[in-house]
Design brief:
Elements lengths: L1 H21 L3 H12 L4 E3 H7 L4 H13 L3 E5 L7 E5 L1 H22 L5 H14 L13
Antiparallel strand pairs: 1-3, 2-3
Length: 143
């Protein structure tokens, strides 16, 4: 129960800070980050939904807002007309870079600052067991 409450509390606070500072939700941020890490800064929409743990209808709604803001655009697949990609625009990448400062500051102040170095190392090992096989645990934005 404590894990669920901690997650909800942290997510709510980080979401509020991202919205206030950058007009992005935490889900917007996750999508922009996933696209920034992807080859050519684009992903199939179905793969993106899976990566950020959203349903197909959820990713469609989220991407519509990001497209209206100019942060993401649709891109067709040259070899399969049925496939549609979500592609990060230069404006979306720039917004992500700006928002990453807020997000990383939040991680430090709302989470990491409450633990010692040793506790953080232990927590990393313990959470690593839960996330075995999941290679997407890095918060860094690619250059």
């Amino acid at each position: 129960m404590a894990l669920l409450r901690a997650h909800a509390t942290l997510t709510r606070q980080m979401d509020a800070n991202l919205q206030a500072e950058h007009e992005l939700t935490i889900n917007d941020y996750e999508v922009l980050l996933a696209l920034a890490r992807a080859p050519e800064r684009r992903m199939r929409r179905v793969d993106l939904a899976e990566r950020v743990l959203l349903t197909q209808s959820g990713i469609t709604r989220l991407l519509q807002g990001l497209e209206r803001a100019g942060f993401v655009e649709r891109a067709d697949c040259p070899t399969d007309r049925r496939v549609v990609y979500a592609q990060l625009t230069d404006g979306g990448y720039e917004r992500l870079r700006e928002a990453s400062r807020t997000h990383l500051d939040d991680i430090r102040s709302l989470f990491a600052a409450r633990f010692s170095g040793g506790e953080l190392e232990s927590l990393d090992v313990l959470l690593g067991r839960v996330l075995e096989g999941d290679s997407d645990t890095d918060c860094a934005i690619p250059d």
